[in-house]
Design brief:
34% of the residues lie in helices and 22% in strands. It has helices at residues 25-33, 35-38, 52-56, 72-80, 93-106, 118-124, 154-163, 177-189, 211-218, and strands spanning 3-4, 13-14, 39-41, 62-66, 85-90, 111-115, 130-136, 164-174, 193-195, 224-230. By secondary structure, the protein is an alpha/beta fold. The chain is globular. It is built from 9 helices and 10 strands. It has one domain (3-230): Vaccinia Virus protein VP39 (Rossmann fold, 3-Layer(aba) Sandwich).
């Protein structure tokens, strides 16, 4: 998940735990075979512009997936939605390997997989270049002293909104009630976003169930969706 970086020289506040983990042979093979054509590394401080049209080799609506976990949901959405391109960013290397494997196995040409800080990636994208941003089950950072590390903060939301086209949507989901309330307050306070529902949204059919969602339901937690549109 992304990190919050000021426009000064202050160190970024990370909104994710750097995670590597061990990769299976399948994932390692995907990194070797699929990454060269479909992967990109996000480097801190690199402001080289990234044009989705050049990245995907076509002009199509682009969806940014922040923190895709193991990538099963991203692959399912991309397969069901071939007219849009999916730019997916994660820091968990086994998840990156798994999504690359799914891309190769399913022949998904409308997915690109980025490794690194999501907000660093967002800063490289042109304003108005995204059709949608998905933030599904980000780290809730439940301890009060860690709330500053949450991805959905006013500065990050403003930057994500700027990258959306007019009419584009920012869709967040979480299974932590306190974070859901904080998300709602932050998103509703952004002057350029409008909530598409009266409070939380019904669970959209197009959002596949994620591993984190299943874990939350099994633990008895409610799932909260929030969908806001850029004015």
């Amino acid at each position: 998940m992304g990190g919050l970086m000021s426009e000064t020289t202050e160190r970024p506040i990370r909104t994710f735990h750097p995670r590597r983990g061990r990769m299976s042979g399948r994932h390692a093979d995907a990194m070797a075979e699929v990454w060269p054509a479909y992967g990109l590394t996000v480097r801190d401080g690199d402001r080289t512009p990234l044009d989705p049209r050049e990245l995907f080799g076509r002009a199509a609506p682009t969806v940014l997936e922040i923190g895709f976990g193991m990538g099963d949901s991203t692959a399912a959405m991309a397969a069901a939605d071939p007219e849009r391109d999916y730019l997916a960013v994660e820091v968990h290397t086994p998840g990156i390997g798994n999504l690359l494997a799914l891309v190769g196995e399913r022949g998904l040409t409308n997915v690109r997989v980025a490794h690194g800080d999501a907000m660093e990636l967002v800063r490289k994208l042109p304003a108005g270049s995204l059709d949608a941003v998905h933030v599904y089950f980000p780290d809730p950072w439940p301890k009060a002293r860690h709330h500053k590390r949450r991805l959905i903060q006013p500065a990050n939301v403003a930057l994500l909104r700027e990258r959306l086209r007019p009419g584009g949507t920012l869709h967040c989901a979480t299974d932590w009630a306190h974070y859901a309330a904080a998300m709602a307050e932050t998103l509703d306070a952004d002057p350029g976003l409008a909530n598409l529902h009266d409070g939380f949204a019904p669970r959209p059919a197009h959002r596949p169930e994620t591993k984190f969602e299943r874990r939350g339901v099994t633990s008895g937690r409610e799932i909260f969706d929030l969908i806001h549109r850029r004015a």
